[in-house]
């Protein structure tokens, strides 16, 4: 019997609807497996939801907003790689997890429940003192800042390896991000920027950093009844930041025009205001966080 | 298991004397067999130098065949009489039995003289309370039942003497012949096989098939439900087609309807890029044999009472009627009416004209069942008739016009899938799986295939009184692992009986008992407090393990060592086993499902 069944294994499945784990792969581990082990090992304190222990999306290598077709294709591709018929008994545990992930994500109601549990976990992280996803500064203030495009990042850990005080792995999203701006000496940072196989580490303007770091985080999508919902992040974070800035400018301009030409030209201003009304409502929530980010950052810089 | 051992050893001696194999092939090493029959059948055994390609074997109720991947395609092996399809029977003459692979029958009637045993696939692993066993009593050899839930007594008439045998032995004899045939043609020793089995086979029946293979010195690499073997072949054809068209290889849904002489199986498969996902399976013990028996009792209404005594005369009579009816049914596939003219002796003569409508009317129930199997399968797969891209009919009964009609009617006149030989599809699929599971690679990507299987029957335990509580439901993707938490029904209950069943019935006794064991040492606590976790794990080679642990609330550690039991543990007589357990323990060691606290 090649699967080792121990007491601890059993406990890991002692709660129904829980993902089970124990991998005894001899091969060098791909990323998801390392993640998985790490996630599993983290202390199981009482508040932690058992389901949150690994991410089905990450396991299947699909994005949070992927449709059934994409999930199906990813599932088949992985099955072809890891099914016990192909790799033998050692694929058993992994295939079990794949089957569970597939079962949940393919059923609309189960997927929504799962997404909710994921969201809860993430909100909990966000409420912690350390706002996950925002970098802190070390040393003197600089005009430029480091930024990892998490959409492009393949999670190779190269940068973490070379400059571990600066970069960190986000195990939930499976990508690297900046923990401390310039936490290592410049030479190490240069090596890690160069070693990135997809060139996703950028030097950006320091004032742009907060916007980028805010936008790169997956945001909850608005749901309409049973449709929509879930989480998404902009496909190109730089473009998103640009349009965000434009929106800010436009808003400022609108306010200006409202203040100056109050009574003179009523109809065009009204039309413009109406056009931007919905945008303003949306922006309000953005701005709140934006201010908060500024505050947090300001404190860190000082 | 002990009582079957002498027969088992006898078998080896018989095998040894009959086929003088090179001993280095490990043919006559009893130790190897006993291990093979009870060890797990994983596909880990890669031979030292180069991977041995497992052969695909289809042992049907009436016909069997063997095929192998020859490096570029599937090749069906022929016997010395140039037959691809060989009759599944064993004739006991003098001392040496001979099977349908090698021997030549002088006449069909010889098959029905009482010395020939066939239809064993219908009887293997069944107890004598099973209606299928009872309906097999009209076969022209001895099937005796005691109706207490033990295996039936089966015997062949040799020189006016009843010589007893078992379904396993009969299957093993022609598996040995098939193996010899393959070894002679492939010029290499054969050890690994992929066998096709009916969907409705219980796990206990599967162990009987494995036992028969072990007796024949074969190692079972996979037991594939028949329609899933066809699904694999379909997956291969689709992939080749998409290669040719440079197509994107979009997903295709196929419904496979396989009706042979003994069993009727349905599967729904979703195929894309060489991966076939089995969405649902359904199967039943109905087939050509039922058509034949219904027709026989139609032609000779009091046949059952007539054949009860199983005298030499009756057997001959039974044989004559069987051959005539079989012939009539075959002819009805192409003609609308046939003349049945048979002299059964003793002034008993049948002279009748039977038309197709009559035949269909007599077998109305069988065809109704076929329809309900298809509908159930579609429903389980959560698909509509319109979602199905291809409808595939295979098996011997696919030649019956009514079967074709009922399938096309369900699918609103959709044209049936062509490009598959109805009789060879299953064995070809098994051969492809044999190559895939042996780790063979094909440079053209023809073996870049995978079948993701599903469990055909639910598995669970007896709980909540006499109910069957499934732990792994039907049509769960394999490999599978699920668990359910149970608890005690009385205060300070320290022991609990776990009865593992397989099937679809609501009541425990409507299902097949797979095994049982007792949990002892549960810490004394009020009822409903201890959490008894029953976890079931099925791996890709279909090995079922049941794990039971007891956890007390507030603790993260199991209170007693976890029990792990490989199923099935029952070896025989599962009918009276459950009754006896029930008599001894009643409900004292029962469990109930623990309601999850919200």
From TrEMBL, chain A:
Residues 144-172 form the 4Fe-4S ferredoxin-type domain. InterPro entries: 4Fe4S_Fe-S-bd (IPR017896), DnaJ_domain (IPR001623), J_dom_sf (IPR036869). Residues 251-270 are annotated as: Disordered. It comes from the Eukaryota. This is J domain-containing protein. It comes from Crotalaria pallida. Residues 55-118 form the J domain.
TrEMBL record, chain B:
Residues 1-17 form the signal peptide. The lineage of its organism: Eukaryota, Viridiplantae, Streptophyta, Embryophyta, Tracheophyta. The keyword rRNA processing does not apply. It comes from the Eukaryota. It holds the Pfam family HSP70. Belongs to the heat shock protein 70 family. InterPro entries: ATPase_NBD (IPR043129), HSP70_peptide-bd_sf (IPR029047), Hsp_70_fam (IPR013126). Keywords: ATP-binding, Nucleotide-binding, Signal. GO terms for molecular function: ATP binding; ATP-dependent protein folding chaperone. This is Heat shock 70 kDa protein 8.
